[in-house]
Write a structure and sequence with these properties.
single chain, mainly alpha, MetI-like fold, 0% strand
């Protein structure tokens, strides 16, 4: 199956696939993730703050983008919008589609993480004279981020794989390069297996990075963190006496 000819084709295809990965796949992933996170944070905060009207819009947005396939959303943006007079190239269309879709999922992750922070933290912030925005920025969000970090990083890994769908709207990313090579040499099995291995290697590196960051930052369970806070408070009270 993997004859000398096939291995030679794979060796020829690999540099081109890696170049497409560096020039298109990785930038597409990073830009889409940043855009999706910004929008997700806005959607989450609007819901937590219970802003009338905007909260309902956020829930509707999340319902739409979580309830429809990403590929369909991509086709609507790239193939559908031109009928309304809006023309986008493949790369920006892919960024918009990935960002909008990712925001719907990450908004729920952030919302759940924020709500997991004990309400006593908010009350304590008000007691020392902080306003709502200061409390969210200095007290609530740092704690919520610790809870949300693992699933948010997992969504980054998922997005890395999902970027392969951008090849359906003319984006010349890594899988698209693999398709061209497979069509030229009539070796789809070997080339697609090679592309899968490259995606696997990238996602494995990201998984190790996630594990390293979690250990380095020493995540604690909410109960453990609360216990530590209680000990610190008791110690400070005893010192004051």
């Amino acid at each position: 199956m993997f004859t000398e000819r096939v291995l030679g084709i794979m060796a020829t295809a690999l540099p081109n696939m890696l170049l497409a990965c560096l020039k298109v796949t990785i930038p597409l992933t990073v830009i889409s993730f940043i855009g999706g996170m910004i929008l997700a944070l806005i959607l989450a905060l609007v819901q937590v703050a219970n802003v009338k009207g905007l909260k309902q819009f956020a829930r509707f947005y999340i319902w739409i983008f979580r309830g429809t396939p990403l590929l369909v959303q991509m086709f609507i943006i790239f193939f559908g919008l031109p009928s309304l007079g809006v023309y986008l190239d493949g790369f920006p269309a892919a960024i918009i589609a990935f960002s909008l879709n990712l925001a719907a999922y990450n908004a729920e992750i952030l919302r759940s993480a924020i709500l997991a922070v004990p309400t006593g933290q908010m009350e304590a912030g008000y007691m020392i004279g902080l306003n709502y925005f200061q409390i969210m920025a200095r007290i609530v969000m740092p704690q919520a981020f610790k809870t949300a970090f693992p699933p948010l990083f997992s969504s980054l890994i998922g997005l890395t794989k999902d970027t392969s769908m951008a090849s359906t709207i003319t984006v010349i990313e890594m899988l698209s390069v693999g398709k061209q090579v497979a069509a030229r040499y009539y070796e789809p099995f070997a080339i697609y297996c090679e592309a899968a291995l490259v995606y696997l290697a990238i996602c494995t590196l990201l998984t190790f990075l996630q594990s390293h960051l979690e250990k380095k930052l020493e995540w604690k369970q909410p109960d453990e963190a609360a216990a530590d806070d209680g000990k610190k408070l008791a110690a400070s009270s005893a010192a004051g006496k």
